Amino acid sequence: MRVAVASFEFEGNSLSPRRDGRADFTRKGMCEGAAVLAAASGKRIALSGGIDTLAAAGAEVVPLLLANGGTGGCVTDEMFAYACDVIVAGAAAAGPWDGVYLALHGAMITETDGDPEGTLLTALRQALGPAVPVAVSLDLHAHVTEAMVEAADIVCGYETYPHVDAYETGAKAAALLVRTMRGEIRPAMALAKLNALLPVLGMATLGDAPMAEVAAASREMERRGVLSVSYFPVQPWLDGADVGIAGLAVTDGDTAAAEAAATAVADAMWTRRARFLLPAFTPEDAVAEALNRPERTVLLVDGSDAIGGGAAGDEAAVLAALLALAPGVPAAVSLVGAAAVAQAAAAGEGARAVFTLGVQRLAVEAEVVRLADGRFTYDGGPFAGAEATIGPAAVLQAGAVTILVGSHAVYEHTDEHYRAAGIDIGACRMAAFKQLMNFRKLLSADVGFVPVHGPGATPLDLTAVAWNRRVRPFWPADAMAEPPRLPTVSRLFGGA
Ligand SMILES: [Zn+2]
Q1: What is the pLDDT of residues 354-388, one digit of tens each?
Q2: Ligand 1 center to 199 CA (angstroms)
Q3: I want to staple 393 with a disulfide (CB 3.0 to 4.6 A). Which of 111, 188, 372, 449 is the partner?
Q4: What is the DSSP letter of 471?
Q5: Local structure of 121: helix, strand or coil
Q6: How many helices (H) and strands (E) does the chain have?
Q7: Which residues surround ligand 1, an ion (CB under 5 A)?
């Protein structure tokens, strides 16, 4: 078995001004060819799970590309064309293949393309022909499209949120690819989608949350013989007519069963939709609420400026609320502000100055406590084991409020970025995070949280967004009795 493998992961956000080009992907460790195996070795990313599973099955694994852009606004057309060329032209030039495995996110957008994964997979299919099975792993927040389902044979999504199973999802897709290459199974795949969005803050697959029930029902379908069942509650900040929550299933040759399972998963999310809503506070109310909480440390979850959802991480509304309402209470805040970092570096450690922070251009008099390189290693999550950096960073102290200023917006897992800068959030009464879910890993009897609804590119209220392309009626903007179904798509490996 000779298998080409590649990753090209990016989560887009139509409301974010960020643009990620080739230099950004390079900074995040992009590599090609043989270097991919070394870069993926020992990691807990999806690509590593795919590679390890294929190698263990005796396949010859030929790596083409490792490109993980994390999250942001969109990928530049130049970067997308480059990655497509490495994967598609690379696969065409180095074949023949028995199979292909790709680790994608599934919610990428580019400057001009609302479905780049569909474009990539369609081009790959044209290069490979219909007989080569293509397996894909996706993030749980993927925007799975008709084009993707029509061009791939096996699609598996993460089962967990917070994401702790990227490696296992790559392994799951690759294992089904191995069985397909051996002729043991003939994948039939179906996608069922609803014109509905759900709030990300309520998407946890933990405890008694609604997605935990959807996950349990999906695993039960797999126990009963469906090869793979995935749920895609979708990255909601994508402005597209076909963006919606979806179920996807892969069976052994039974298209009708795949359609039934996919529909059941989509409907399982739909019937629980009201339970996804969690109350959130304005920044000022959140600080007041946190001060009344009994826990030692309260996490202020700035969900509207969630870097993992594609936001820029440069909103200072929570910082402003802390400085106004609780300047003497130990707290930690992080935000992006390259100019302030440069100013702090020029002033030097120990200097005092007035810094301009956030898109609000908040003037903050602070002491430069520490300068840092911003580098850290993820200790879990979808990028577990991978290195990352918030870029040159400065730790500023304003009263009892410690401010970590970085130069780049980088996906937040838990508190790795704080720890790398010498900040112990456990010693703080309040600690702010720019994310929607991974903070739950920090919760305990001593650590609670308050969701914040402030400014930013990941607004918690999905009805307040000025969508350009969404089709009405859609949930939650419009009341409706029946599930707003979009066309179901299916594909049988090798054709009907
Ligand atoms: Zn995700």
Answers
A1: 999 999 999 999 999 999 999 999 998 888 888 89
A2: 13
A3: 372
A4: P
A5: helix
A6: 14, 22
A7: 139, 141
Q: How far is the CA of 458 from the centre of ligand 1 (A)?
A: 13
Which range marks the domain in which residue 110 is found? 2-275+485-492
User: Considering the chain, what percentage of its residues have pLDDT values greater than 70?
Assistant: 100
* pLDDT tens-digit readout, 163-190: 999 999 999 999 999 999 999 999 999 9
Give the pLDDT of residue 496: 61
Domain shared by 265 and 345, yes or no: no
In the chain, the number of structural domains is: 2
Q: How far is the CA of 436 from the centre of ligand 1 (A)?
A: 10
Ligand 1 centroid from CA 288, angstroms: 30
* One domain, residues 157 and 178: yes
First to last CA, the chain: 25
> Considering the entire predicted model, what is its pTM?
0.93
How many A from CA of 238 to the centre of ligand 1? 13
| Å from CA of 210 to ligand 1 middle | 17
CB-CB contact of 312 with 415 (8 Å): no
SS3 readout for 33-63: CCHHHHHHCCCCCHHHHHHHHHHHCCCEEEE
Q: What are phi and psi of 47, to 5 degrees?
A: -60, -40
Distances 428 to 300, 329, 417, 439 between C-alpha atoms, Å: 12, 8, 15, 15
Closest among 332, 335, 422, 342 to 376, alpha carbons compared:
422
From residue 79, how far is each of 6, 23, 101, 118, 464 by CA, in Å?
15, 9, 21, 16, 32
Domain-embedded: residue 477: no
Residues 266 and 313 in one domain: no
346 CA to middle of ligand 1, Å? 38
Asked whether residue 439 falls in the same domain as residue 389, the answer is yes
